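FAQ

Q: What does a record look like?
A: Structure on top, sequence underneath. For example:
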């Protein structure tokens, strides 16, 4: 049976944020619908046919199956990291870097941006191609000659031009086009993750980290620059890459730091959780609603189950950082 529901955030990773792995339930804050609910990791951070390929000789879910094999190894690595409360093991650490790289290069936010860019380019081309009846006729002749149009294709210039001016058409980007752009990028991004130095933080008892549908949070190291400048690139110095590992562990990578592991306090956990909120696409996932968070506009620590009542939350720009 061909798998059609594909997770862009792996289930094995999301299970690190549940209270009971045997009966996994996530506390979900949905900023789109402005509600909270509990559900299994299988029901979130997934899209139909997200990894479906169209390559002769391969099954449509061949790539999804390949990712499943990676996730089996990742699952064991994450369990060992959580048990040891450390990312010192080189092999386990490398698998986490692969996970971060995959989510940096293959996610719905990037796909939406890529689709928008292609659609804008296609619309400019259509506007130019239909700018005069003569130019449109030439385009039709060339398309028929090259076999892109059948001989009796509609050539009504006035109707086509009116449709273009009104924007009465949609430009869709097939999944294969996204994958052709994403997969080669992996090898370029991976070194930018691995070359950073990583500081891992352990949450105190009674506190917990959260994650999201876009858990790779890239930001300027200087908080003032986060407010003044556009999101940074992965190759830039003086940037920090925040990534929660489980409800107990989170890590921050930078080129200027040194590798270190330390216990942290509730205030720092709250700051990290606030950063994850501000960079999610739509949903945040937690062990329960009691986690701490702190956003830029409020100095006090608040509980997660108070988030949707936070007066400053919905003025945020969800694409403000990478």
């Amino acid at each position: 049976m061909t798998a059609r529901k594909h997770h862009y955030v792996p289930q094995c990773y999301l299970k690190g944020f549940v209270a009971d792995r045997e009966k996994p339930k996530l506390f979900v804050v949905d900023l789109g619908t402005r509600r909270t609910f509990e559900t299994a990791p299988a029901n979130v951070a997934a899209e139909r046919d997200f990894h479906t390929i169209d390559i002769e000789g391969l099954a449509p879910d061949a790539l999804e199956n390949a990712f499943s094999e990676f996730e089996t190894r990742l699952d064991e690595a994450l369990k060992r990291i959580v048990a040891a409360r450390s990312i010192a093991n080189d092999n386990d650490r490398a698998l986490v870097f692969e996970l971060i790289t995959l989510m940096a290069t293959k996610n719905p936010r990037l796909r939406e941006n890529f689709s928008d860019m292609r659609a804008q380019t296609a619309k400019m081309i259509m506007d130019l191609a239909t700018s005069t009846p003569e130019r449109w006729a030439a385009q039709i002749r060339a398309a028929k000659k090259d076999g892109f149009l059948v001989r009796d294709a509609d050539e009504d210039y006035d109707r086509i031009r009116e449709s273009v001016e009104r924007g009465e058409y949609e430009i869709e980007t097939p999944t294969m086009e996204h994958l052709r752009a994403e997969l080669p990028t992996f090898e370029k991004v991976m070194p930018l993750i691995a070359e950073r130095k990583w500081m891992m933080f352990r949450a105190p008892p009674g506190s917990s980290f959260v994650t999201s549908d876009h858990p790779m949070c890239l930001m300027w190291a200087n908080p003032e620059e986060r407010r003044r400048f556009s999101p940074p690139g992965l190759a830039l110095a003086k940037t920090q890459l925040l990534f929660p590992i489980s409800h107990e562990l989170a890590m921050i990578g930078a080129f200027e730091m040194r590798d270190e592991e330390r216990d942290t306090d509730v205030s720092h956990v709250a700051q990290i959780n606030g950063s994850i909120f501000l960079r999610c696409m739509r949903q945040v996932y937690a062990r329960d609603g009691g986690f701490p968070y702190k956003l830029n506009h409020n100095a006090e620590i608040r509980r997660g189950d108070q988030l949707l009542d936070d007066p400053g939350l919905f003025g945020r720009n969800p694409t403000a950082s990478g």
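Q: Is there anything notable about this one?
A: The chain has a mean pLDDT of 90.
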